[in-house]
Amino acid sequence: MTTILHHVPGARSFRILWLLQEMGITPEIRTYAIQDGSLRHPDFLAKSPAGRIPALEIDGEVIYESGAITEYLCETRPEFGFGRAPGHPERIPFLEMMHYAETIGHLIGGLNLQWIFLRNPEDRSDTVCKLDARRLQGAIAPIEALLGRQDYMLAGGFSAADTMMGFTLTSSQRYVRFDRFPNILAYLDRMAARPGHRAAKALDGPSNLPARDFYEVGA
Ligand SMILES: N[C@@H](CCC(=O)N[C@@H](CS)C(=O)NCC(=O)O)C(=O)O
């Protein structure tokens, strides 16, 4: 099997790298940078029409959208138990958490645009930044409550909902102070201790995002 992951270090493609490593699959990695135009090259647009990572090629077939890739990998490799198939008692929370990761993810993307990718910082909107940081914090708070009741996104144990959400929660720390979310901090420590996560971190590569660790947004 040939597996190629189109990847930006520290970006959403980490979700796929981590899941693949949990499955014992090491892909060939093609690395891009968001700010250098490489994701807008026609060759890449032919694989991912909005010019976004991740895209995953398996034996020449390309899939884009991290949630779709994740569901596909779980469905085609049920022996790992990382998905929750139709009829499974955790099917609904599985789907909810998979997609909730992108409710949070799109808020981070908006803040990244404001703080990292705008060419002219004077174009940044303080109002939008504050609103989005508050909305981000509000979207994370229910996860803190959830992790007060269970160790993973699903009560039944580790799943691909964790590879989707774990990455998202890690990235949220750029805009939200997590000292108010101790259950999530303990969860992220548990995730980081997993051999699959460690192996994925080793493959991730150095960040090429010109980003600070934390932006004080005033939430
Ligand atoms: N919903 C998509 C979002 C993909 C996405 O926006 N990826 C970002 C990196 S985290 C990207 O490629 N950004 C490039 C751009 O916005 O030009 C997914 O989950 O795969």
Automatic annotation (TrEMBL):
Residues 1-81 form the GST N-terminal domain. This is Glutathione S-transferase. It comes from Primorskyibacter flagellatus.
